[in-house]
Every structure is written in structure tokens, then in C-alpha cells.
Design goal:
Elements lengths: L12 H24 L8 H7 L16 H18 L4 H38 L9 H11 L5 H64 L1 H4 L3 H22 L13
Length: 259
């Protein structure tokens, strides 16, 4: 009797992982196709006409200010910010413009949210006259949410847009501060380089004038290296005092000339 032993070689690990990833990708695609069947939007003509205005119902998600009063408020705030911070360059001016935009949108959303909250509370008090009149606004809104959660959905939506604009406003302010700091550091480095270059020019001018004086005054040529260094130090201090005396002081009044 003979027994055949089948020897099977194991599949490579890379091939097994590739097959698992392919199966997972196919499962995700099938799941996405099934979910897409449940989110096709309105099917009736009346529903399509109504849903087409969703993007401009409150304007909180747009990139432009549509109301005239919001545009005027944003322009005024942008002008005041430019006067206070003096932006330089296109990027700094653009961040100032975005700061004014988000700030104006935040004020508009806060006014809308406050109006809706008072309307919800007034409706609650009209339906529930037995409620205590000294309750805080937060308590009344909590009672309204418990009584009719759908009534606060517009407030929740506007609050979400308010949170998004507040985050974008904070990021824009941080970007402006960063740009301004980098510009000031660059200006400081440029002024430092100018001072260093001016100091080098003054040192070269002093060295040239010192060599000319050494040629003209024979006594200076007989000085020791230490004495020559002392003379150069004295000459530098004398020239510095001479320059300070000749430069006009900021608070110095000019002499009046006779007519």
C-alpha cells in the first residue's frame, strides 16, 4: 500500500494582504452604493423648487455678505482695523479683510440667534402660562427643547455656523499676528545689517584717515603698538563726540531769524 503525501506551499504574506485589501475595498464600494440610494434628495418638482433655496436661506455659509447693512459694517470695521494695525503688503491686507468679514458675520448670526431664542421662549410662555416668570433664558430654552425639539433646530444650525466663523476668525487673527511678527523681524534684521555695514564703512574711513595722519605726523610713526592703539581709541572717541556735537537734537529749537 502506498500513501501519497500532498505537499502544499503556503501563500506569500504579501498576496494574502493584497487579497484582504481588495475585498475590503469592494465591500466599502458596495456599502457606499447602498447608502447612495437613500440620499438622492427630493423627487417631486415642488421639493426640488424648495430645496434649491437652501443655500441662500440664511446666507451663513456663503463667502460674501449679501445684506447692505452687513457690507457697510464690514467696510467700516476694515477701515478701522487698517488704521489701528497699519497692514503692509497684499497678504496682510487680505487677512484684515477676512477678519472684518468673519466679525461682521458673527454679529449678524448673534442677532439672528437672539431673535429666534426670544421667539421660541415667547411661544413657550404662551403655551405654558404656569411657568415661573423669573426663569433664566437658558432654563426656558431647555424647557422648550424638551417640549418641542424641532423648534430649536434653526437655532442649532445658526449656532453651528457661528462656531465655524468664530474658529475661522481666530485663525485669521493668528495668521495676521504671525505675518506682522515675521515682517517686523525682517525689518529688524535689515536695520541691523544696515548698521553693521555703516559701522564697517566708518571703520574703513577711520583707518584711511589714520594712515594719512601717520604719514603727515612723524611723531606718530615712532609710537609703540600699545601707544598707537591708545591714540586710535582717543581719535575714535574724539570723532564720535564731534559728530554728536554737530548733529541737531530732536528737541533743539532753531534760532529765530530776524525779518
Amino acid at each position: 500500500m502506498s500513501i501519497d503525501l500532498a505537499i502544499t506551499t503556503p501563500a506569500p504574506a504579501d498576496a494574502t494582504e493584497a487579497e484582504a485589501e481588495a475585498k475590503a475595498a469592494a465591500a466599502r464600494a458596495a456599502r457606499n452604493r447602498r447608502n447612495a440610494q437613500n440620499s438622492t434628495g427630493p423627487k417631486t418638482e415642488a421639493g426640488k423648487q424648495r430645496s434649491r433655496w437652501n443655500a441662500v436661506r440664511h446666507g451663513a455659509s456663503g463667502l460674501l455678505l449679501h445684506r447692505r447693512e452687513d457690507q457697510l459694517a464690514a467696510n467700516l470695521l476694515e477701515k478701522e482695523l487698517c488704521q489701528d494695525y497699519q497692514p503692509e503688503g497684499a497678504l496682510e491686507r487680505q487677512t484684515i479683510e477676512r477678519m472684518a468679514f468673519h466679525s461682521t458675520r458673527l454679529r449678524s448670526l448673534e442677532a439672528q440667534i437672539s431673535t429666534l431664542e426670544h421667539l421660541v421662549v415667547d411661544d413657550l410662555l404662551a403655551r405654558e402660562p404656569d411657568l415661573p416668570q423669573d426663569l433664566e433664558m437658558a432654563s426656558l430654552l431647555a424647557a422648550a427643547r424638551h417640549d418641542n425639539p424641532d423648534a430649536l433646530r434653526p437655532i442649532d444650525l445658526l449656532s453651528r455656523y457661528h462656531r465655524d466663523h468664530e474658529r475661522d476668525y481666530r485663525r485669521t487673527v493668528e495668521l495676521f499676528v504671525k505675518l506682522r511678527k515675521e515682517r517686523r523681524l525682517a525689518e529688524r534684521d535689515f536695520r541691523q545689517a544696515e548698521r553693521e555695514e555703516l559701522k564697517k564703512q566708518e571703520d574703513r574711513h577711520f583707518a584711511n584717515s589714520a594712515r594719512e595722519q601717520l604719514k603727515q605726523v612723524p611723531a606718530l610713526q615712532n609710537l609703540s603698538p600699545t601707544g598707537l592703539m591708545e591714540w586710535q581709541k582717543y581719535e575714535q572717541e574724539r570723532l564720535a563726540k564731534q559728530n554728536e556735537a554737530t548733529e541737531p537734537k530732536p528737541n533743539q529749537q532753531q534760532p529765530e531769524t530776524e525779518a
